[in-house]
Write a structure and sequence with these properties.
This protein has helices at about 15, 30-45, 60-70, 100-105, 105-115, 150-175, 185-195, 200, 230-240, and strands spanning about 1-10, 50-55, 80, 175-180, 210-215, 220-225. By secondary structure, it is α/β, with parallel strands linked by helices.
Length: about 250
């Protein structure tokens, strides 16, 4: 049996403030660190033993992975990082409060920016201080590769080459692989594995720091997928993600 563990990062400082984050490199809150550690404890208690891990360039994912591995006493595991696992770029709305943005532009417009499959938010200028072009960790990328805004479709398109060239081969050569990343980059993997349609995947909410387990036969046929943990608490977390950008002043 093969197993793929997907984990969205724990609560970040901007999650707590309800801000659009995207490629902005914000840290975990204390609660986020704790929920990541608890995810690791749960994985250990259930007997999961990943052999290799993947994460993004963003510290909220990297530090979630560190907490998970610390709780599992598996800090020694090899870890590969890629910008292709980064969160969707929210362009010029990065740093804005989700509810206030909905109040200004309307719930429907913000929902399209946030959750439609192929609608991009307004783009950053390449030399905006928030642009990845200004961040040394992305110096390897050409201007054409720098995302100044992305739809979910765009995010999946830049993710999939890495999934197929790095993550999938790792799963073929190991029994258990773990990926710690972000809501939208993980949606790309889920869409691929479950064969979800565009309308289906945009409605699928991934809660923070909850292990999502995919089990495969040895010939890589998906047999089962499930969120690990208290199901009532997981549903509450998923509903919280769905409601983040609503204009609560109505």
């Amino acid at each position: 049996m093969k197993q793929l563990i997907l984990i969205r990062h724990g609560e970040s400082e901007w999650n707590k403030l309800n801000l659009f984050t995207g490629w902005t490199d914000v840290d975990l809150t204390e609660f986020g660190r704790q929920e990541a550690f608890e995810a690791g404890k749960l994985l250990k208690a259930e007997g999961f033993k990943p052999e290799i891990c993947f994460t993004s360039y963003l510290k909220r994912a990297v530090r979630t992975l560190n907490q998970v591995l610390a709780a599992m006493d598996m800090d020694y595991l090899p870890v590969e990082k890629s910008w292709r696992l980064n969160e969707k770029s929210y362009g010029a709305i990065q740093g804005l409060n989700k509810a206030e943005t909905a109040k200004k532009y309307g719930d429907e417009q913000v929902l399209r920016w946030r959750r439609s499959f192929d609608v991009q938010p307004p783009a950053l200028d390449l030399h905006d201080e928030r642009s990845p072009r200004m961040d040394p960790r992305y110096a390897e990328l050409s201007d054409a590769e720098i995302p100044l805004t992305e739809s979910l479709k765009d995010t999946i398109a830049r993710l999939m080459p890495y999934y197929k060239d790095a993550i999938l081969p790792a799963l073929n050569s190991h029994d258990t692989v773990m990926v710690v990343a972000h809501g939208n980059s993980l949606r790309g993997i889920v869409k691929e594995l479950k064969g979800m349609g565009n309308d289906e995947i945009i409605k699928f909410n991934i809660p923070t720091a909850v292990p999502y387990i995919f089990q495969f036969s040895d010939d890589m046929k998906l047999e089962k997928d499930y969120f690990l943990g208290n199901q009532d608490e997981i549903r509450r977390k998923m509903e919280s993600v769905a409601n983040q950008a609503k204009n609560t002043s109505k």
